[in-house]
Amino acid sequence: MQQHSITIYNLMVQFFQKNEPIQKFKSNSVLFQEKDPVENVYLLLKGSIALGRVHVRGKDFILKILNDRELMVEYQLFKAHPHYQFYAKTLTDCECLVIKKEQFEDFVLTDPDAMKALVAWLSTGYLKAQMKCQDLIMNGKKGGLYSILIRLCNSYGVKTDNGILINLPLTHQELANLTYGTREVIQRALKDLREKDIISYENQMFTVKNVNYLKEEVDCQNCSFEICGLN
Known about the structure:
By secondary structure, this protein is an alpha+beta fold.
């Protein structure tokens, strides 16, 4: 998120943090399951959270990973008796403001700045989802992996002497869940990238040594970080 603009996250923190205590969640905590009745929206202050779904056959799909300063509204707004569309699970220890659904909806309905900021946030999220679908459909499983690695660099990348360190621990299985592929397919593609010295992997951390190679392979359009991220 751009720090200088008025975002729905910033407006909500200013409005709700006076009355809502910060709640702490340990790593691997489930905040809600898909199809649960909606009770709360969450402001993620610190940490990382995965949003996903479990297929009827048990396959786990991670739709996005949120890091600090994010809002979770994973249901149809202003609908009577909504249910969560995805599950939310913490990947690290997290701190959140937990706000009742009714309070959140009243806030955006009665504050014009909040409604404007919410619409801007939702439209950006829509574009992100469309771009991610495009990458996965047009580039296949291997290209989908390359696209996800680029997005991870944008969302979690730290420049080092060796390249861009993705500062988020990820197993091969979690990466497969992000690309909607199998672990075996992803492991083969990652092995190929390591042999070409495009990436390295140590202590569950990936370093992308040559991000331009990945971008060329998927015909990257160099979209802004705001659009090309995992959140």
